Amino acid sequence: MATFLYKLGRLAFRRRHFVALIWVALLTLAGVGAASAPPAGNSSFSIPGTEAQKAFDLLEQRFPGASADGATARVVFKAPSGEKMTDAGHKATVEKTVDELADGSEVASVADPYKGNAVSEDGTIAYASVKYDVSGMELEESTKDALEDAAQQARDAGLTVEIGGDALQAVPETGATEIIGIAVAAVVLVITFGSLVAAGLPLLTALIGVGIGVSSITALASALELGSTTSILAMMIGLAVGIDYALFIVSRYRAELAEGREREEAAGRAVGTAGSAVVFAGLTVVIALVGLAVVNIPMLTKMGIAAAGTVAIAVLIALTMIPALLGYAGRRVKPAGAKGKLLGRARKGEPKPDQPAGQPKANLGTRWASFVVRRPLAVLLLGVIGLGAAAVPATSLELGLPDDGSQPTSTTQRRAYDLLSDGFGPGFNGPLMVVVDAKGSDAPKDAFTDVEQRIKDLDGVVAVAPPAPNKGGDTATITVVPDSKPSSVQTEDLVHAIRDAGGDIEAKTGAETLVTGSTAMNIDVSQKLNDALVPYLVLVVGLAFLLLIVVFRSILVPLKAALGFLLSVMAALGAVVAVFQWGWLSGLMGVEETGPVMSMMPIFMVGVVFGLAMDYEVFLVTRMREAYVHGEKPNQAIVTGFKHGARVVTAAAVIMMAVFAGFIGSSESMVKMIGFGLAIAVFFDAFVVRMAIVPAVLALLGKKAWWLPKWLDRALPNVDVEGEGLRTAAERGTGTGPDEDRELVRT
Fold this sequence. Notes:
62% of the residues lie in helices and 7% in strands. The chain is of the alpha+beta class. The strands form three sheets. Strands 6, 7, 8, 9 and 10 form a five-stranded antiparallel sheet that branches. A four-stranded antiparallel sheet has the order 2-3-1-4, sandwiched between helices. It has a two-stranded parallel sheet with strand order 5-11. Helix 7 packs antiparallel against helix 8 and helix 8 packs parallel to helix 10. The protein starts with a helix and ends with a helix.
C-alpha cells in the first residue's frame, strides 16, 4: 500500500498538469450535468415491509387517479376578534378564495369548508383543503404564487390566513453560518501552516471534491429521486473529510521537507504514509455510510451512498491533486517549523530544518502525552465519567419525525398548524387513515361499519369519519382524529390499539384493517430504525474492526477504538436530547420548538460518527504504531505519536466541528439537528476519547496493546500503513535519494 501510494504521489507531483486537467474536466462535466439536468421530482418516502407502506400501496391500486402522492395545502382562515367565519361577509370571502384556487391548472380538487364541515365549533376558524395532481417539489412556481395570492386577497379582506401542508415545500437553506464554518476552517489552516498558500490547498481541493460530488447528485437527482437533504448531507461530510484528508497529507509533506528531502520525494513519502492512513480512514467512513442500506429505508440508503461517494472523491483528490498542487506551489510551501512570511518565525518546540540534533523544547502535544502516560488511570477515569455524565439525557430519548409543528413560528406552515390545533384539537394535524380491505369479505359494507364502530369505542379518539368506499366497493378509507398531537405517546398507543382490533375484525369478517397516514408512517419508521440499530452496529463495527486489525496488526487497539466510539456517540446523543428535546441552550442553537428527536438520528449518528471517529484513530495511532515498529518503547511511541500528530489532529477536529456547526443555521430542522449532533460528537471523540482515553488505555496496556496471535499475523495481508516498506527500500539502497527513488517510480 505505502509503496504504491508513494509512486502515485510522485507521479502526480511530476505530472501535475495532467492531474489538474483531469479534475478540472470532471468538475466541469459534473457542473454541466447539474445545470442541464431536469429539476428533481418527488423524493418518495417509502418504508418497505411496514403496515403503513402496505396500506399506501393498496390505496394506489384500489383508488386509481386519486393522486395519493400529490401535494396538499390547507388554507386556514381565522375571523377577527369577536366575529365568526359564518358571518356573511367572511363566508363570501372564503367562497371567492375557494373558486380562485379551483381554477389552477395543477389543482385536483378544493374542498369548501362550509360544505365539508371544516368550521370549528366556536365558528372562529375554518379551512379549505386543496389537493394537487403533482408532488410539492414538482409544483410550478405559478401554482404556488396563485396559492399565496389567493391567501393574500383573503387577508386584505380582514381575515387571518395561513397555509399548511407540503404545497409550499421549499429546498432547505443552510444559512450564513455555513460560510462562517468554512471561514473558521481557513483560519485554523492558516494558524496550523503559517502560510496562506499551504492553508489554501486543503480548502481548494475540498471545494473541488464537494463541487464534483454535489453536482453529480444534482444531475442524478431526478432519475434517482434524491431529496434536497441528500446533497446537503453530502456537502456537509464532503467538506469536513475533504479538508481533513488534505490537511494530513500537506502536514506530512512539510514534515518530510523538514527532514531535508527533495520536494518530489517529500510528496511521494507524504502520500505513501499519511495517504495510507487517508485510504483506510476513508474506507471506514464509506463502510459506515453504505451500511445504512441494511435499514431498508430507500431514502436513508440513497443519502448514505451519495455521501459515501463524496467521501471517496475526497480520498482520491487528496491522493492525487494535493501532490499536484504541491508541485505548483513549489517553495511557497515551507518545511515544518521553517520561517514563513505570514507568521514571521518558527513555532516554538519545533526544530528548524538546519537546527542540529538536540533537545528542542517539547510542544504541547508532547507535554500532554507525557502527562497522560504518567497518570493514565486518572485520565481514563475522568474521561469515562465525563462522557458518561453527558450521555445521561440519552436515557430519556424520544423518537419521531418532524412535521409542520416543528417548523419555526415565523413560517406560515407553523402558524397554520397552530390555528388548526386551536380550532379542531391537537390531533387534527395528524389524522390517521384506516384502510379496510374487504375483498375477502362476504359483506364488505358490514365490515366497514364494524371497523368504524370498533374505532369509535377506543380511548383517545375525537372523531371518526364515515367509511369512504372505492368504486368497486371492496375497499374503504376511514379518517380517525386522535385527541393528542401527532408526535405523542398517546397517539402511538392509539395506532397500536387500532391495529390490535384489526386482528379480531379480520377473524370475524375476513376484512383486513391497515393504518397509514403520515403519523402512522412516522411510528413505523421509528420502530424499523430501532429494530435495525443492533444489526447495523454489528455489521459496520464488525467490518471496521476487521479493517483496523489489518491496519494496526493488533486485537486490543481496534477493540479500544470501538468501545471509545460507543462512549462518544452516546454522549453526543445525550447532548442532542438535552438541546432538541429538553430545550437546554435551545435559544443559542436557534431551536424554536423542542420535541422528539428525529427517528433517523441515532442510527445515522452511529454510522457517520463511527466513520469519522475512526479517522482520528487511524491518523493518531498510526503515528504511534509507526514509532513502535521502528523500535521505540510503547510509552515513548505514544509521546512520539502525539508529538507529530496531536497538532494536526486537533486542527482537523476543529475544522470538522466548524464545518458541521455551520449547518446549525439551516432552516431545515433535520439538517440543524444533524449538524449539531455531528459537531458535538467530533468534539467528544477527538478531544476526550482520542486525545485522552486512547493514550491512557495504551499506556496501561503497554506492549500488550500491539499483541497479535502469530497465526493471525501470518494470515493478514501486510498493507504497510506506516511506510515501513519505504524505509526498508532505503536501507537496501534502492530508494534513499531522489535519483534512486525516481528510478523506483519509473519501474
